[in-house]
Amino acid sequence: MNHQIHIVGGGLAGCEAAWQLARRGVRVRLSEMRGAGDTTPAHQTDQLAELVCSNSFRSDDDSRNAVGLLHHEMRRLDSLVMRAAAKAAVPAGSALAVDRDVFSTEVERELAGLPNLEIVRERVDELPDAGPTIIATGPLTADRLAQSIVAATGEDRLAFFDAIAPIVHRDSIDMSICWMASRWDKPSKLGGDAKDYINCPMNKEQYEAFVQGLVDGEKIAFKQWEADTPYFEGCMPIEVMAERGPETLRFGPMKPVGLDDPRTGRWPYAVVQLRQDNKLGTLWNMVGFQTKLRHGEQTRLFRTIPGLENAEFARLGGLHRNTFLNSPLVLDRQLRLNEAPHIRFAGQVTGCEGYVESSAVGLLAGLMAHAELCGRDWLGPPRSTAMGALLAHITGDAEADSFQPMNVNFGLFPPLHDVKKKQRKEAYTTRAKADFGEWMAARIMAADHAA
Protein backbone atom coordinates (compact mmCIF):
# COMPACT_ATOMS: atom_id res chain seq x y z
CA MET A 1 0.00 0.00 0.00
CA ASN A 2 1.41 3.41 -0.95
CA HIS A 3 1.33 5.54 2.17
CA GLN A 4 0.80 9.25 2.61
CA ILE A 5 2.51 9.37 5.99
CA HIS A 6 5.02 7.16 7.77
CA ILE A 7 4.79 6.71 11.55
CA VAL A 8 7.79 5.15 13.28
CA GLY A 9 7.02 3.58 16.65
CA GLY A 10 4.10 1.43 17.77
CA GLY A 11 3.83 2.69 21.34
CA LEU A 12 1.01 4.77 22.75
CA ALA A 13 1.84 7.95 20.82
CA GLY A 14 2.45 6.22 17.49
CA CYS A 15 -0.73 4.16 17.73
CA GLU A 16 -2.79 7.22 18.69
CA ALA A 17 -1.39 9.26 15.79
CA ALA A 18 -2.04 6.38 13.37
CA TRP A 19 -5.62 6.05 14.62
CA GLN A 20 -6.39 9.74 14.23
CA LEU A 21 -4.96 9.84 10.69
CA ALA A 22 -6.24 6.55 9.31
CA ARG A 23 -9.79 7.20 10.55
CA ARG A 24 -9.70 10.42 8.55
CA GLY A 25 -8.88 8.55 5.35
CA VAL A 26 -5.09 9.01 5.30
CA ARG A 27 -3.00 6.04 4.15
CA VAL A 28 -0.61 5.25 7.00
CA ARG A 29 2.44 3.00 7.36
CA LEU A 30 3.12 2.21 11.02
CA SER A 31 6.59 0.75 11.65
CA GLU A 32 7.39 -1.11 14.88
CA MET A 33 10.73 -2.84 15.41
CA ARG A 34 9.49 -5.25 18.08
CA GLY A 35 8.35 -8.38 16.27
CA ALA A 36 11.09 -8.02 13.67
CA GLY A 37 13.80 -9.58 15.79
CA ASP A 38 14.44 -6.47 17.88
CA THR A 39 13.36 -5.41 21.35
CA THR A 40 14.24 -2.90 24.10
CA PRO A 41 15.68 -3.33 27.62
CA ALA A 42 12.22 -2.79 29.15
CA HIS A 43 9.61 -4.33 26.83
CA GLN A 44 8.53 -7.93 27.38
CA THR A 45 6.27 -8.48 24.34
CA ASP A 46 5.94 -7.40 20.73
CA GLN A 47 2.43 -6.02 21.29
CA LEU A 48 1.61 -2.52 20.15
CA ALA A 49 1.06 0.00 22.94
CA GLU A 50 2.65 -2.23 25.58
CA LEU A 51 2.57 -0.60 29.03
CA VAL A 52 6.10 -0.95 30.35
CA CYS A 53 6.05 0.63 33.82
CA SER A 54 2.76 1.00 35.69
CA ASN A 55 -0.70 -0.07 34.55
CA SER A 56 -2.16 3.23 35.75
CA PHE A 57 -3.23 6.25 33.70
CA ARG A 58 -3.48 8.07 37.03
CA SER A 59 -6.38 10.23 38.18
CA ASP A 60 -9.62 10.13 36.20
CA ASP A 61 -11.07 13.12 38.07
CA ASP A 62 -11.75 15.72 35.36
CA SER A 63 -13.05 18.36 37.77
CA ARG A 64 -10.04 18.82 40.06
CA ASN A 65 -7.08 17.08 38.42
CA ALA A 66 -5.04 18.04 35.34
CA VAL A 67 -4.50 14.42 34.29
CA GLY A 68 -8.20 13.66 34.59
CA LEU A 69 -8.89 16.78 32.53
CA LEU A 70 -6.53 15.45 29.86
CA HIS A 71 -8.50 12.18 29.87
CA HIS A 72 -11.67 14.22 29.30
CA GLU A 73 -10.21 16.13 26.36
CA MET A 74 -8.84 13.00 24.73
CA ARG A 75 -12.19 11.25 25.03
CA ARG A 76 -13.84 14.18 23.27
CA LEU A 77 -11.47 13.60 20.36
CA ASP A 78 -12.27 9.88 20.30
CA SER A 79 -8.82 8.84 21.50
CA LEU A 80 -7.90 5.22 20.75
CA VAL A 81 -5.98 5.02 24.03
CA MET A 82 -8.99 6.18 26.06
CA ARG A 83 -11.28 3.86 24.09
CA ALA A 84 -9.06 0.84 24.78
CA ALA A 85 -8.56 1.86 28.42
CA ALA A 86 -12.32 1.89 28.98
CA LYS A 87 -12.55 -1.73 27.85
CA ALA A 88 -9.50 -2.81 29.85
CA ALA A 89 -10.22 -0.87 33.07
CA VAL A 90 -9.66 -2.50 36.47
CA PRO A 91 -10.68 -1.08 39.90
CA ALA A 92 -8.25 1.61 41.13
CA GLY A 93 -10.18 4.07 43.28
CA SER A 94 -10.53 7.38 41.49
CA ALA A 95 -7.69 6.50 39.12
CA LEU A 96 -7.89 4.87 35.70
CA ALA A 97 -5.92 1.62 35.64
CA VAL A 98 -6.04 -1.16 33.07
CA ASP A 99 -5.28 -4.80 32.43
CA ARG A 100 -2.10 -4.49 30.35
CA ASP A 101 -2.76 -7.43 28.04
CA VAL A 102 -6.39 -6.51 27.41
CA PHE A 103 -5.38 -2.92 26.70
CA SER A 104 -2.68 -3.79 24.15
CA THR A 105 -4.89 -6.39 22.48
CA GLU A 106 -7.70 -3.86 22.13
CA VAL A 107 -5.38 -1.25 20.58
CA GLU A 108 -4.11 -3.78 18.03
CA ARG A 109 -7.63 -4.96 17.24
CA GLU A 110 -8.87 -1.44 16.53
CA LEU A 111 -5.87 -0.55 14.36
CA ALA A 112 -6.02 -3.83 12.43
CA GLY A 113 -9.60 -2.98 11.46
CA LEU A 114 -8.55 0.13 9.53
CA PRO A 115 -8.11 -0.80 5.83
CA ASN A 116 -5.85 2.15 5.03
CA LEU A 117 -3.41 1.40 7.88
CA GLU A 118 -0.46 -0.93 7.27
CA ILE A 119 1.38 -2.23 10.33
CA VAL A 120 4.92 -3.30 9.43
CA ARG A 121 7.34 -5.01 11.79
CA GLU A 122 10.61 -3.40 10.82
CA ARG A 123 13.44 -1.38 12.31
CA VAL A 124 14.00 2.13 11.00
CA ASP A 125 17.58 3.28 11.49
CA GLU A 126 17.63 6.67 9.78
CA LEU A 127 15.37 9.70 9.63
CA PRO A 128 13.83 9.84 6.14
CA ASP A 129 15.10 12.49 3.75
CA ALA A 130 11.59 13.33 2.48
CA GLY A 131 7.92 12.57 2.96
CA PRO A 132 5.60 13.32 5.90
CA THR A 133 6.85 11.38 8.92
CA ILE A 134 6.02 11.13 12.62
CA ILE A 135 8.75 9.77 14.90
CA ALA A 136 7.12 8.29 17.99
CA THR A 137 9.81 5.87 19.10
CA GLY A 138 9.48 6.89 22.71
CA PRO A 139 12.06 7.09 25.45
CA LEU A 140 13.64 3.78 24.37
CA THR A 141 14.58 4.86 20.85
CA ALA A 142 17.02 2.40 19.26
CA ASP A 143 20.63 3.56 19.18
CA ARG A 144 21.09 3.96 15.42
CA LEU A 145 17.91 5.98 14.99
CA ALA A 146 18.77 8.01 18.08
CA GLN A 147 22.15 8.87 16.57
CA SER A 148 20.40 9.92 13.35
CA ILE A 149 18.15 12.22 15.41
CA VAL A 150 21.16 13.71 17.19
CA ALA A 151 22.83 14.37 13.86
CA ALA A 152 19.70 16.05 12.51
CA THR A 153 19.03 18.23 15.54
CA GLY A 154 22.57 19.39 16.14
CA GLU A 155 21.87 18.94 19.86
CA ASP A 156 22.99 16.02 21.96
CA ARG A 157 20.05 14.08 23.36
CA LEU A 158 19.17 14.34 27.02
CA ALA A 159 18.47 11.31 29.19
CA PHE A 160 16.90 10.25 32.48
CA PHE A 161 16.01 7.00 34.21
CA ASP A 162 12.56 5.49 34.43
CA ALA A 163 11.86 2.70 36.89
CA ILE A 164 9.58 -0.35 36.98
CA ALA A 165 7.68 -1.44 40.12
CA PRO A 166 7.35 -5.10 41.19
CA ILE A 167 4.14 -7.10 40.66
CA VAL A 168 2.90 -9.60 43.29
CA HIS A 169 0.62 -12.62 42.88
CA ARG A 170 -2.60 -11.89 44.81
CA ASP A 171 -2.90 -15.34 46.36
CA SER A 172 0.52 -15.00 48.01
CA ILE A 173 -0.54 -11.95 50.07
CA ASP A 174 -1.55 -12.57 53.71
CA MET A 175 -4.93 -10.87 54.00
CA SER A 176 -5.12 -11.60 57.74
CA ILE A 177 -2.56 -8.80 58.07
CA CYS A 178 -3.42 -6.62 55.06
CA TRP A 179 -6.80 -5.08 54.29
CA MET A 180 -8.64 -3.64 51.32
CA ALA A 181 -9.34 0.11 51.28
CA SER A 182 -8.94 3.27 49.26
CA ARG A 183 -7.52 6.38 50.90
CA TRP A 184 -10.29 8.27 52.73
CA ASP A 185 -12.68 5.51 51.52
CA LYS A 186 -12.91 7.28 48.16
CA PRO A 187 -14.93 5.09 45.75
CA SER A 188 -13.77 4.05 42.30
CA LYS A 189 -15.34 5.59 39.20
CA LEU A 190 -16.10 1.99 38.22
CA GLY A 191 -18.35 1.67 41.25
CA GLY A 192 -17.81 -0.68 44.17
CA ASP A 193 -17.21 -0.22 47.86
CA ALA A 194 -14.13 2.05 47.94
CA LYS A 195 -11.82 -0.89 48.67
CA ASP A 196 -9.59 -0.88 45.63
CA TYR A 197 -6.12 -1.13 47.20
CA ILE A 198 -4.42 -3.78 49.32
CA ASN A 199 -2.78 -2.09 52.29
CA CYS A 200 0.19 -3.53 54.23
CA PRO A 201 0.62 -1.77 57.61
CA MET A 202 3.94 -1.04 59.31
CA ASN A 203 4.69 0.10 62.83
CA LYS A 204 7.57 2.48 63.58
CA GLU A 205 10.14 -0.24 64.23
CA GLN A 206 9.23 -2.14 61.04
CA TYR A 207 9.31 1.04 58.98
CA GLU A 208 12.69 2.18 60.23
CA ALA A 209 14.20 -1.26 59.62
CA PHE A 210 12.75 -1.31 56.12
CA VAL A 211 14.12 2.13 55.26
CA GLN A 212 17.55 1.11 56.51
CA GLY A 213 17.32 -2.02 54.38
CA LEU A 214 16.60 0.08 51.31
CA VAL A 215 19.60 2.31 52.02
CA ASP A 216 21.94 -0.63 52.70
CA GLY A 217 20.58 -2.94 49.99
CA GLU A 218 22.77 -3.98 47.07
CA LYS A 219 21.91 -2.04 43.93
CA ILE A 220 22.63 -2.75 40.29
CA ALA A 221 25.75 -0.80 39.40
CA PHE A 222 25.51 2.05 36.93
CA LYS A 223 27.23 1.67 33.60
CA GLN A 224 29.72 4.38 32.79
CA TRP A 225 27.40 6.13 30.32
CA GLU A 226 24.61 6.18 32.95
CA ALA A 227 26.56 7.71 35.81
CA ASP A 228 25.66 11.37 35.29
CA THR A 229 22.09 10.82 34.07
CA PRO A 230 19.45 12.41 36.35
CA TYR A 231 16.33 10.63 37.58
CA PHE A 232 12.90 11.99 36.71
CA GLU A 233 11.33 13.20 39.96
CA GLY A 234 7.94 11.64 39.13
CA CYS A 235 9.39 8.12 38.92
CA MET A 236 12.03 8.12 41.66
CA PRO A 237 13.40 4.71 42.78
CA ILE A 238 12.24 3.78 46.26
CA GLU A 239 15.80 3.49 47.61
CA VAL A 240 16.74 6.93 46.27
CA MET A 241 13.77 8.42 48.15
CA ALA A 242 14.87 6.57 51.30
CA GLU A 243 18.36 8.07 51.00
CA ARG A 244 16.86 11.57 51.14
CA GLY A 245 15.84 11.09 54.76
CA PRO A 246 14.15 8.55 57.08
CA GLU A 247 10.73 10.22 56.88
CA THR A 248 10.64 10.79 53.10
CA LEU A 249 8.69 7.63 52.30
CA ARG A 250 6.08 8.33 55.02
CA PHE A 251 5.24 11.53 53.13
CA GLY A 252 5.43 9.82 49.73
CA PRO A 253 4.36 6.37 48.54
CA MET A 254 4.15 4.94 52.07
CA LYS A 255 2.00 7.68 53.63
CA PRO A 256 -0.66 6.24 55.98
CA VAL A 257 -3.12 9.17 56.00
CA GLY A 258 -6.73 8.29 55.29
CA LEU A 259 -6.19 4.56 55.80
CA ASP A 260 -7.73 3.14 58.98
CA ASP A 261 -6.35 -0.28 59.92
CA PRO A 262 -9.52 -2.28 60.80
CA ARG A 263 -7.62 -4.13 63.53
CA THR A 264 -6.79 -0.93 65.43
CA GLY A 265 -9.16 1.69 64.02
CA ARG A 266 -6.15 3.98 63.56
CA TRP A 267 -3.73 4.94 60.83
CA PRO A 268 -0.57 2.78 60.83
CA TYR A 269 2.84 4.40 61.09
CA ALA A 270 3.38 3.66 57.38
CA VAL A 271 1.58 1.72 54.64
CA VAL A 272 2.64 -0.13 51.50
CA GLN A 273 -0.16 -0.11 48.94
CA LEU A 274 -0.74 -2.54 46.08
CA ARG A 275 -2.97 -1.74 43.09
CA GLN A 276 -4.76 -4.28 40.90
CA ASP A 277 -2.75 -4.90 37.74
CA ASN A 278 -5.04 -7.13 35.64
CA LYS A 279 -8.77 -7.69 35.19
CA LEU A 280 -8.67 -11.06 36.90
CA GLY A 281 -7.29 -9.44 40.03
CA THR A 282 -4.52 -12.04 40.24
CA LEU A 283 -1.64 -9.57 39.88
CA TRP A 284 -1.05 -6.51 42.08
CA ASN A 285 1.45 -3.69 41.55
CA MET A 286 3.46 -2.29 44.48
CA VAL A 287 2.57 1.41 44.24
CA GLY A 288 5.60 3.69 44.04
CA PHE A 289 8.08 0.83 44.48
CA GLN A 290 10.16 1.25 41.34
CA THR A 291 13.69 0.23 42.20
CA LYS A 292 17.28 -0.45 41.15
CA LEU A 293 17.86 -3.01 43.91
CA ARG A 294 19.23 -6.35 42.74
CA HIS A 295 16.50 -8.95 42.27
CA GLY A 296 17.63 -11.16 45.16
CA GLU A 297 17.74 -8.13 47.44
CA GLN A 298 14.24 -7.09 46.34
CA THR A 299 12.81 -10.52 47.18
CA ARG A 300 14.48 -10.59 50.59
CA LEU A 301 13.63 -7.03 51.60
CA PHE A 302 10.08 -6.83 50.23
CA ARG A 303 9.19 -10.03 52.09
CA THR A 304 9.87 -8.18 55.35
CA ILE A 305 6.77 -6.06 54.61
CA PRO A 306 3.88 -7.24 56.83
CA GLY A 307 1.56 -9.38 54.72
CA LEU A 308 4.16 -10.02 52.04
CA GLU A 309 6.26 -12.52 54.00
CA ASN A 310 5.40 -15.23 51.46
CA ALA A 311 4.97 -12.99 48.44
CA GLU A 312 5.49 -14.49 45.01
CA PHE A 313 6.58 -11.97 42.41
CA ALA A 314 5.30 -12.06 38.83
CA ARG A 315 7.83 -9.34 38.03
CA LEU A 316 10.55 -7.69 40.05
CA GLY A 317 11.51 -4.06 39.75
CA GLY A 318 13.95 -2.67 37.21
CA LEU A 319 15.39 0.49 35.79
CA HIS A 320 16.13 1.65 32.27
CA ARG A 321 17.44 4.75 30.57
CA ASN A 322 15.05 7.00 28.68
CA THR A 323 15.98 9.55 26.03
CA PHE A 324 14.20 12.70 24.93
CA LEU A 325 14.73 15.77 22.79
CA ASN A 326 15.39 19.27 24.02
CA SER A 327 12.12 20.11 22.28
CA PRO A 328 12.01 23.88 22.97
CA LEU A 329 15.24 24.17 20.97
CA VAL A 330 14.72 21.69 18.14
CA LEU A 331 10.94 21.57 17.48
CA ASP A 332 8.51 24.23 16.27
CA ARG A 333 5.04 24.81 17.69
CA GLN A 334 3.65 22.02 15.49
CA LEU A 335 6.16 19.43 16.74
CA ARG A 336 8.14 19.67 13.50
CA LEU A 337 11.90 19.40 13.44
CA ASN A 338 13.28 22.86 12.73
CA GLU A 339 15.97 21.50 10.44
CA ALA A 340 13.67 19.04 8.65
CA PRO A 341 10.02 20.17 8.86
CA HIS A 342 8.70 17.10 7.03
CA ILE A 343 9.42 15.23 10.28
CA ARG A 344 7.27 15.53 13.38
CA PHE A 345 7.98 14.03 16.77
CA ALA A 346 5.36 12.71 19.16
CA GLY A 347 5.13 11.11 22.59
CA GLN A 348 7.69 10.82 25.36
CA VAL A 349 10.63 11.45 23.04
CA THR A 350 9.42 15.08 22.95
CA GLY A 351 9.93 15.47 26.70
CA CYS A 352 6.42 14.91 28.02
CA GLU A 353 6.18 12.32 30.78
CA GLY A 354 3.48 9.71 31.36
CA TYR A 355 1.25 7.38 29.39
CA VAL A 356 -1.57 9.87 29.01
CA GLU A 357 0.65 12.80 28.10
CA SER A 358 2.50 10.70 25.53
CA SER A 359 -0.77 9.58 23.97
CA ALA A 360 -2.12 13.14 23.93
CA VAL A 361 0.94 14.46 22.10
CA GLY A 362 0.60 11.59 19.61
CA LEU A 363 -3.04 12.53 19.10
CA LEU A 364 -2.11 16.16 18.48
CA ALA A 365 0.67 15.17 16.06
CA GLY A 366 -1.88 13.17 14.10
CA LEU A 367 -4.29 16.09 13.92
CA MET A 368 -1.51 18.46 12.91
CA ALA A 369 -0.33 16.13 10.14
CA HIS A 370 -3.89 15.70 8.87
CA ALA A 371 -4.44 19.46 8.67
CA GLU A 372 -1.17 19.83 6.78
CA LEU A 373 -2.02 17.05 4.32
CA CYS A 374 -5.38 18.73 3.70
CA GLY A 375 -3.75 22.11 3.08
CA ARG A 376 -5.40 23.69 6.16
CA ASP A 377 -3.83 25.97 8.73
CA TRP A 378 -3.38 24.28 12.08
CA LEU A 379 -5.64 25.60 14.81
CA GLY A 380 -4.18 24.44 18.10
CA PRO A 381 -6.03 23.96 21.39
CA PRO A 382 -5.95 27.00 23.73
CA ARG A 383 -3.26 27.07 26.39
CA SER A 384 -6.01 27.11 28.99
CA THR A 385 -6.75 23.46 28.12
CA ALA A 386 -4.74 20.46 29.28
CA MET A 387 -3.64 19.61 25.74
CA GLY A 388 -2.79 23.20 24.91
CA ALA A 389 -0.83 23.74 28.11
CA LEU A 390 1.20 20.56 27.66
CA LEU A 391 1.90 21.27 24.00
CA ALA A 392 2.93 24.87 24.68
CA HIS A 393 5.32 23.76 27.41
CA ILE A 394 7.25 21.24 25.34
CA THR A 395 7.34 23.33 22.17
CA GLY A 396 8.68 26.59 23.52
CA ASP A 397 7.32 27.73 26.87
CA ALA A 398 9.80 25.67 28.91
CA GLU A 399 13.31 26.92 29.57
CA ALA A 400 15.54 25.10 27.10
CA ASP A 401 18.60 25.31 29.37
CA SER A 402 16.91 23.32 32.11
CA PHE A 403 14.34 21.36 30.08
CA GLN A 404 13.22 18.14 31.78
CA PRO A 405 10.32 15.70 31.22
CA MET A 406 7.02 17.06 32.50
CA ASN A 407 3.66 15.61 33.46
CA VAL A 408 0.60 17.71 32.75
CA ASN A 409 -0.23 19.86 35.79
CA PHE A 410 -2.04 23.09 36.58
CA GLY A 411 1.29 24.88 36.86
CA LEU A 412 1.44 24.79 33.04
CA PHE A 413 -1.92 26.58 32.69
CA PRO A 414 -2.38 30.36 32.43
CA PRO A 415 -2.87 31.41 36.07
CA LEU A 416 -6.16 32.40 37.68
CA HIS A 417 -5.00 34.88 40.31
CA ASP A 418 -8.49 36.18 41.07
CA VAL A 419 -9.78 32.77 42.24
CA LYS A 420 -9.36 31.57 45.82
CA LYS A 421 -6.87 28.73 46.21
CA LYS A 422 -9.45 26.18 47.38
CA GLN A 423 -11.55 26.81 44.29
CA ARG A 424 -8.70 27.13 41.81
CA LYS A 425 -8.53 23.53 40.54
CA GLU A 426 -12.21 23.47 39.67
CA ALA A 427 -11.86 26.89 38.10
CA TYR A 428 -9.04 25.64 35.90
CA THR A 429 -11.06 22.64 34.69
CA THR A 430 -14.25 24.66 34.18
CA ARG A 431 -12.42 27.20 32.05
CA ALA A 432 -10.58 24.47 30.16
CA LYS A 433 -13.75 22.55 29.29
CA ALA A 434 -15.46 25.67 27.98
CA ASP A 435 -12.44 26.69 25.91
CA PHE A 436 -11.93 23.16 24.63
CA GLY A 437 -15.55 23.01 23.49
CA GLU A 438 -15.17 26.28 21.59
CA TRP A 439 -11.95 25.02 20.00
CA MET A 440 -13.59 21.81 18.87
CA ALA A 441 -16.49 23.73 17.34
CA ALA A 442 -14.04 26.02 15.52
CA ARG A 443 -12.14 22.99 14.19
CA ILE A 444 -15.31 21.42 12.84
CA MET A 445 -16.29 24.69 11.16
CA ALA A 446 -12.82 25.03 9.62
CA ALA A 447 -12.92 21.45 8.33
CA ASP A 448 -16.40 21.92 6.85
CA HIS A 449 -15.30 25.15 5.17
CA ALA A 450 -12.23 23.48 3.66
CA ALA A 451 -14.32 20.56 2.40
Query: Compute the gyration radius: what is it?
Result: 22 Å
| Largest sheet composition | 6 strands, mixed
- In round numbers, the mean pLDDT is 90
Question: Termini separation (Å)?
Answer: 25 Å
The percentage helix is 25-40%
Helix and strand run: EHEEHHEEHEEHEEEEHHEEHEEHEEHHH
Any idea of the CATH class of the largest domain? Answer: Alpha Beta
The CATH homologous superfamily of the largest domain is termed FAD/NAD(P)-binding domain
Q: Please give the number of β-strands.
A: 17
CATH architecture of the largest domain: 3-Layer(bba) Sandwich
List unreliable stretches of 5+ residues.
none
Helix count, DSSP H or I runs of 4 or more residues: 12
Structural class: alpha+beta
Sheet with the most strands: spatial strand order: 6-2-1-7-17-16
As a percent range, the share of strand residues is: 15-25%
Count up the domains: 2
Query: How is the CATH topology of the largest domain named?
Result: FAD/NAD(P)-binding domain
